[in-house]
Amino acid sequence: MNTDMVAQLMRELVRQALILSAPILVAAAVLSFVLSLFQTLTSLQEQSLTAVPRLGAIALILLAGMPWFLERMAMYTRVLLTDLHKYLG
Description:
It is a single chain. By secondary structure, this protein is mainly α. It has one domain (3-88). Helices cover 90% and strands 0% of the residues. The protein has helices spanning 3-42, 48-82, 84-88. It starts with a helix and ends with a helix. The relative contact order is 0.12. The mean pLDDT is 91.
C-alpha cells in the first residue's frame, strides 16, 4: 500500500464522516441560534432552556435518520471490504 492509497482511503473516510454528521450538526446549530435568539429577546438565562430542546432534537434526528445512517455506513464498509485486496497486495 502506497501513500496515494492511504490518502484516498482517508479522504473517503473523512467525506463519509462529514456526510453522516452534517444533518446533526446543522440541526444543532440552527436550533442553538433560535434558542439563543429567544433567550436574548425574553431575557431568560436558564441553561436547561437550551440544553433540553437541543438534546431532544438531536435524539429525534438520530432516531429518524438511523436507517439512512446505517445504510450509508454499511455501504462504505462493503466497498472497503470488497476492495481490500487492492490495499493489501
